[in-house]
Amino acid sequence: MVSRVIPVEPFDLVIFGGTGDLARRKILPGLHRRFLAGQVTAEARIIGAARSQMDDAGYRKMVRAAIHEFGAPEDQDKAGIDAFLEILRYVPIDARGENGWQELAAHVRPGLVHAYYFSVGPGLFGDLAERLHSHGIADENSRIVVEKPFGHDLESARALNATLAEHFRECQIYRIDHYLGKETVQNLMAVRFANILFEPLWNAQYVDHIQITVAVTVGVGGRGAYYDKSGAMRDMVQNHLMQLLCLIAMEPPSRFDPDAVRDEKLKVIRALEPVDPHHIVRGQYAASGEEPGYREDVGDPRSLTESFIALRCHISNWRWAGTPFYLRTGKKLKARSSEIAVVFKDAPHAIFGQDAGQHRNILSIQLQPNEGMMLDVTIKEPGPGGMRLIDVPLDMTFAEALGEEIEDVPDAYERLIMDVIRGNQTLFMRGDEVEAAWAWTDPIIEGWEARGDVPKPYDVGSTGPEDALMMLHRDGRRWREIK
Ligand code: BG6
Q1: Would the CB of 147 count as within 6 Å of ligand 1?
Q2: What is the rounded distance in angstroms from the CA atom of residue 1 to the CA atom of residue 124?
Q3: Which of 3, 22, 27, 140 is the most buried (most CB within 10 A)?
Q4: Is the CB of 75 under 6 A from ligand 1?
Q5: Atom of ligand 1 nearest to the CA of 240
């Protein structure tokens, strides 16, 4: 049973690239789920627009297949799918020409919320934005949704922002980073800003360091051509890990409103120091046995792109001066596991004779696979034998604590699309944030390109290259286990 769902007002959502991979995997199955939950009502209209010649019936057939393939097993009820398909339409369109635009305009109903999802390459953003205006279907109340990658570097991100700004105001532009739609990521804000417990300790005086790990077991899959031009730094660190870093490090905003939150995140990004090359380790998964390596996966035997990166960064402000933030992400690693760990300092005086670093409070925030939080607390080992200390976790795995309620939590895309309809930009990146993130990222990449750095090979199913372990070892610390 779905609880506490408030339907959104009727809307028209046009998905440019409506037959593409993202639409079939995420956007349409997500909208179907929100429809089943009663949040999207039968008065909504979803219009797929793409190059393929198809009619409504053909599109519905495609979407039904997508829901079968990518939807949750419990969402496969035929009547529910049939009812959802009723609200779908399809318009073949030429993004760079005039074909299809009048037909699209005829589908868009005046007076409703209009959202245009640009699920297409950034090269088409300008053409789409311009035609939406010239055909009179973009007004003050329209929103556009754009996906990452938002640019390849600062210059291209600026150019994209400028193109969009010619036609839309910032409050109409929703730049998606799907990590911000994850349940635990938002919980991070709730835990930090709705509890008094952590805030007094949330600073350089009490925190030894913070680790952010996003590990996946999959390789580059069919996205080799895109990925090989990006690498882990552009694909993951500049956006997803950066957003996690912001939420963990930012000052409490004065209100939970889009600009108050994004102003604080921006300050974190702007306070990031340049990264010392000694604090960067890049890796590339190597072939082993039958298993192809990264270079085979992308079809370039000389590729120097990283499928793994670990780095240490610093935020120069009063709260965090001197506290290292270790970021790590990679493909084909040991497990799919994403975690933020806040490792607190030792108690100031060891009355039980414990060694430095032996017992530490660690708050770990688990993003996936099991969302939850855990706080390692040091206690006395039960039984006779004196005052021996052990660390035990106070476990708050949400599925256990919240039972059934967690089962209906929308996935990141579902939540974010509903936020677009409701007109709430809190969980979307502002243009200046994206530019600031590139301004920090660009010199790091330029640095290793100028040095001709070669990524270190690592085994599929490992935790990344040995050098990444050594990087922390040199600092007298160790990575959290990937499990
Ligand atoms: C995407 C990246 O944005 O995020 C992928 O392009 C990555 O390379 C993915 O695998 C990770 O997302 P999630 O939600 O599976 O952790």
Answers
A1: no
A2: 41
A3: 27
A4: no
A5: 3
